[in-house]
Specification:
The chain is mainly alpha-helical. It is built from 13 helices and 2 strands; from the N terminus they run H-H-H-H-H-H-H-H-H-H-H-H-H-E-E. The N terminus and C terminus are likely disordered. It comes from Eleginops maclovinus (Patagonian blennie).
Length: 339
């Protein structure tokens, strides 16, 4: 395998591009940090997620918050002409955190979609996800499993300091590198396939249901569609770009790689938008969280309007009007009319 050892792959190929990306990252941080802090506050102090059986949602919040606090370091590297930190420990730690928290966010989002799938398509059957939601130990087990899968990012350096085609690879190095890429792609492609399956089945079920059952189904459709949107905007573009980058790198096309790597890093910046879009998933998943958030942070003049708005969640307030009619014989008939 030929390798161009004269090229410093850790340095930015075009500093102007990375200056812009650094400001975009800081914009995501400035918007995302207060948003995620406010969501954490609602889940812990107002919504009390442990009583509402929303442990999986809370885990997504934690994963998003941990990813958000990593962004200033990423912006700092870009500002100083580095794609990744030149310090090996910092480089490994940053990739470990990003891989772990992105994997956690994806895992718990998919579990929520599977839960909706069983509640709608297999209503009446035993839903194993409901059992999992009642046991916090399952969430801990998932984090431990994700930690295990993320360890390869710490064994050898990543991106600027390796990867396939970057150095003369020993067998152990090659196995670690290959495992890392397998984890990266399966982390996206398998969940997205599961998500598409759940979405298609739920939408088909909605079409066959009667009018009286459509409110619950509409909510389920909104949940899975919101997760599809998060995947389509945040994760799929960077995954495709990484596949192209690996192909170019293995062919040792340095000029092409300088272009593709900028596209890949730009799409990775786009993937951080996940931390800003996930609160929409929380609202679609649970109207109680939406109501708690609106009543806490929205101005008074907006609260009444927003709380009465359905958003397709079936949360519109229902009022009952009583109509009393009296017949000639003196009997009274009471009619109830819902609005």
């Amino acid at each position: 395998m030929s390798v161009n050892t004269t090229v410093d792959h850790c340095k930015t190929p075009n500093q102007s591009t990375y200056e812009v990306l650094s400001w975009l990252i800081m914009g995501e941080f400035v918007l995302g940090l207060p948003l995620n802090l406010s969501v954490l506050y609602i889940f812990i102090f107002r919504y009390k997620f442990w009583k509402k059986k929303s442990i999986f949602l809370f885990n997504i919040v934690v994963a998003d918050f941990l990813m958000m606090v990593c962004l200033p370091a990423k912006a700092y590297d870009y500002q100083h002409g580095q794609r990744r930190s030149p310090k090996p420990l910092a480089c490994k730690l940053m990739h470990f955190m990003l891989f772990l928290n992105r994997g956690a966010s994806i895992t718990f989002l998919i579990i929520l979609s599977i839960d909706r799938y069983f509640n709608v398509v297999h209503l009446g059957r035993r839903n194993f996800v409901k059992v999992l939601k009642k046991t916090p130990q399952i969430s801990i087990l998932i984090w431990v499993l994700l930690l295990t899968l993320t360890i390869p990012t710490m064994v050898n350096s990543f991106e600027c300091c390796n990867s396939h085609g970057r150095a003369i690879e020993t067998p152990s190095y090659d196995v670690t590198d290959t495992l890392r890429e397998i984890v990266y792609f399966t982390q996206i492609l398998i969940p997205f396939t599961v998500l598409l399956f759940c979405t298609v089945r739920i939408v088909n079920r909605l079409r066959r249901k009667t009018v009286g059952e459509k409110t619950k189904l509409r909510r389920a459709v909104l949940v899975v569609i919101s997760v599809v949107v998060v995947f389509a905007l945040c994760f799929l573009p960077s995954t495709i770009a990484r596949a192209v980058l690996l192909a170019v790198r293995l062919q040792d096309w340095q000029n092409a790689e300088n272009v593709v790597v900028q596209v890949y890093d730009s799409l990775m910046v786009l993937s951080f938008m996940d931390c800003l879009l996930d609160p929409l998933v929380y609202c679609f998943c649970n109207s109680g969280f939406k109501d708690a958030y609106i009543s806490t942070f929205c101005p008074t003049f907006l609260q009444k309007k927003l709380l009465k708005t359905d958003f397709g969640l079936g949360t519109t307030t229902t009022t009952t009007t009583t109509i009393i009619t009296t017949t000639n014989s003196g009997n009274r008939t009471v009619c109830l009319k819902k609005k």
